[in-house]
Amino acid sequence: MKGRLLYLFKVYVVTVIIFIAAKVLFMLCNAGGHGVTLGDYLSVVGHGLSLDLSTALYFLIVPFLYTMASVWVTLPRWILKVYYAIVALAFALAFVADSSLYSFWGFKLDASCLQYLEQPEGITASVSTGYILFRVLLVALVGILIYKAYGAIGPRELHKGKTPLRQALVQTLVFIALLPLMVIGIRGGVHESTTNIGQVYYSQNQFLNHSAVNPVFSFLYSLGHQLGDQSQYEFFAEEECHRLLSDVYTTESIGTDTLLNTTRPNVIVILMESAGETFAQAMPRLQQLKKEGVNFTQCYGNSWRTDRGTVCTLSGYPSFPHTSIMKIPEKSRSLPSIARTLQTEGYRTTYLYGGDINFTNMRSYLISTGWEQLISMDDYSSAERKTAQWGVRDDITFHTLYELIKEKSHTPEGGGGFLIGYSTLSSHEPWDVPTSTVANDEILNAFAYLDNCLGHFVDSIRQTPAWQDLLIVLTADHGINYRDIDQSRPKEKNHIPMLWIGGAVKAPCTIDIICNQTDLCATLLGQLQLPHDDYRFSRDVLSESYRFPSAVHNYYNAQWLTDSTGQVLYDFDAQQFIVSESTDAERMLNTSKAILQETINDLIKR
Known about the structure:
By secondary structure, the protein is α/β, with parallel strands linked by helices. The protein has two domains: about 1-225, no CATH class; about 250-545, Alkaline Phosphatase, subunit A, CATH 3.40.720. About 45% of the residues lie in helices and about 10% in strands. It contains 22 helices and 13 strands. The protein has helices spanning about 1-30, 40-60, 60-70, 80-105, 115, 120-125, 130-150, 165-185, 205-210, 215-225, 240-245, 285-290, 305-315, 330, 340-345, 360-370, 380-385, 395-410, 440-460, 490-495, 520-525, 585-605, and strands at about 265-270, 295-300, 350-355, 375, 420-425, 470-475, 495-500, 510, 515, 550-555, 560-565, 565-570, 575-580. The strands form two sheets. Strands 1, 2, 3, 4, 5, 6, 7, 8 and 9 form a nine-stranded mixed beta sheet that branches. β11 and β12 (about 565-570) form a beta hairpin. α1 (about 1-30) packs parallel to α4. The longest helix has 29 residues, at about 1-30. The chain starts with a helix and ends with a helix.
């Protein structure tokens, strides 16, 4: 038994060492111009190790099963030789392609390379024949080295004759007991988040983040997160689609009313978990604050999940029925974001989340779109991390937000302002909050707790000098089903708050214009007198160019649209209306289809 386990351990260690060596070689090939130091090599290896350890377990499965079977029968050695030959070739292709393509693409190897195999003339037109031949030789050389590394281990321990029955039974039970550990290792632990690319991101230098990513995992991960066939959403000819949307997405700011005292406020964006207007009754402090700031009374969430709603809010980018762009790093890194835009104006950017920031590739998205400093549950004590099912409860993280604002207000760097994003988490199942304000309703009680945390935070920060130049944007990531309010009542379910408060607000006012959470980016940047042309699907709702007030929301394979004529909710699987409450339902359906077609086409091209 000892010999069999030792053999598997050697295979695993060799695979991890191969991955580490590939990282070093990748950096040596591509480090030019990225200011890489010797310490960076060590940091990349260290931060990337967790992904290497998980990925190596995938390639241990076949040797594991072979070794377990060898307890009972003598298997031919050629099975493992063929397997290692295939693995060696696959690794060699991945490592050489990753190192070679990075200088052209600027991102890690993923499944998008497969589309170029359909038209190889595009490859030969970009590089010389000598370049290709040299890479072919490299693949052969690297493949041989990897194959010999596995061959040096030698499965000699597996061919020592028949194992006595008693020992065979015991060894089989040991192997079976090890299976759950392998699954946990592949998954990346027992937390909510599973192994993903974003977990190894650690630096504002994207080259270092990319270097830490395992190229084999990157390829396999992207292969499993492809958009797939989107032909079902090709409803119109391109010209007709553009005609239908001519007044829907207008990005320019024209004649915008000025709501702020300054064009360079310090900005806080607070995404309140699940805090749709459904729960207004449990949030009296929020209702009071609406009388003190700029209250957008008809704002609606684009989606029903946090990963989607976060992207919609921070990047002004739409959601999609079957796809979370946050989970597709090769797409999400191309998005605009208020963090990146304000960075160019000298703003320092920080994102605070008391949960696992690796969940749904959140870390990758935030770092790739300009958030410099990330604070998550990993930055809190062990006791604080256990205060809620999802991580650190909201009263603790609200206090962190308070301290961050005070700290950054006192330490200006080059005269620039600061932007802080903050996602709350306690108003989420299992509704485990430390207070009992609302009896007999754990959901309302959780939102009452969030409201109390919010009120205490605002009262505290209002007493500091930081309040004078502060703009706090309060909104929700999405709404949720509650009692009889569900997708059959989309207007109620998707209605979310959007409120601007703080000393930077000129005067209280109410904006009764239909809009989406995606419109925050263009509206905010319009107030800051900054261009926002790259936010294709975000509209300045205060601009004279905003001629078609509307909001859209999608989930699974259905999409909801509301405008001045009413609302429609259409199921694309059933090809029928779920809700049709409009004086012009067919026009609204065509507009909804055109929105879906145009936004999906934009996503595909990224």
